[in-house]
Amino acid sequence: MSMPATAMTDGNAAVAGMNGPSLSDADFNFLRTFVYEHCGISLGEHKRQLVQGRLVRRLRALKLRDFGAYCEVLRRDPQAELGELASAISTNVTAFFRESHHFDLLTNELLPRWIAEKKNGGRLRIWSAGCATGEEPYTLAMVLAEALEKHGSHVDAKILATDLSPQALETARKGVYPIDRLEGVSVERRRRWFLRGEGDYDQYACVHPRLRELVSILPLNLLHDWPMQGPFDAIFCRNVVIYFDKPTKQRLFQRYAGLLPEGGYLFLGHSESMYGLNDNFDLIGRTVYRKRSA
């Protein structure tokens, strides 16, 4: 919980925290600049209390006395703390089969077509960019595994899942979720693709080894260099660009276009749009874009 702004002894306005150090103007401005340059996330003044409240936990974890000391950590070694910072200030809201119409399109149209086209040695690749705690890539793995069984299992098919947050990636790698997180998964799929825990873990479920085989989980900052060269048949970047300003979105969409072949698909979140940001794509469904022919 935060309290109203008060005057600090150094003359800077600050938001005083009831249970922790306050965030001065100078430290907040440094954090805003740092986060924008390294994560592409634009923090307005209205985010000040949120930043203070969430970063207090990092101060405690690192045993730092105040936000000034935390800013010094970022100055000395930006990369070491970057993932933790990004995780703290962003909201990783996700779910299995979230925005189910995207997975219906994959199941009913795209995966059967791709598998048929690639039976003679082609590669099928999907990228979950901003995979958070793993629900999205494992949902992709479910529909992919089912399509391979139905239409041809001898296709080289893989899913790349990336995120900046160390905590989110750790959860994704474990693939263990509370039972109530499986709400969007049908009873049939729960039985097929999850292993129920026992004893102290009876309220948890672990993803099936077959899904793990299909998914590679790696750390990646979308603003930095990308080691993969593609091409990807589809890129899922849902509920990620909502944090970015217009120039950052434009650069990101252009980079995605470079990793998609003609006719490749880009999936965005329900509150996101590419309107006026890139002319390489056509909108063909609800937040579904297809790369145009040259």
Describe the structure.
The chain is built from ten helices and 13 strands. It has helices at residues 25-39, 48-62, 67-76, 78-89, 100-117, 135-151, 166-174, 187-193, 209-214, 246-259; strands at residues 2-7, 13-17, 23-24, 123-129, 156-163, 176-178, 194-196, 204-207, 215-219, 234-237, 265-268, 281-285, 288-291. It has a seven-stranded mixed sheet with strand order 9-5-4-10-11-13-12. The chain has a three-stranded antiparallel sheet with strand order 1-2-3. A three-stranded antiparallel sheet has the order 6-8-7. The model is unreliable at 1-18 (pLDDT under 50). It catalyses: L-glutamyl-[protein] + S-adenosyl-L-methionine = [protein]-L-glutamate 5-O-methyl ester + S-adenosyl-L-homocysteine. This is Chemotaxis protein methyltransferase. InterPro entries: Bact_Chemotaxis_MeTrfase (IPR050903), Chemotaxis_MeTrfase_CheR (IPR026024), CheR_C (IPR022642), CheR_MeTrfase (IPR000780), CheR_N (IPR022641), CheR_N_sf (IPR036804), SAM-dependent_MTases_sf (IPR029063).
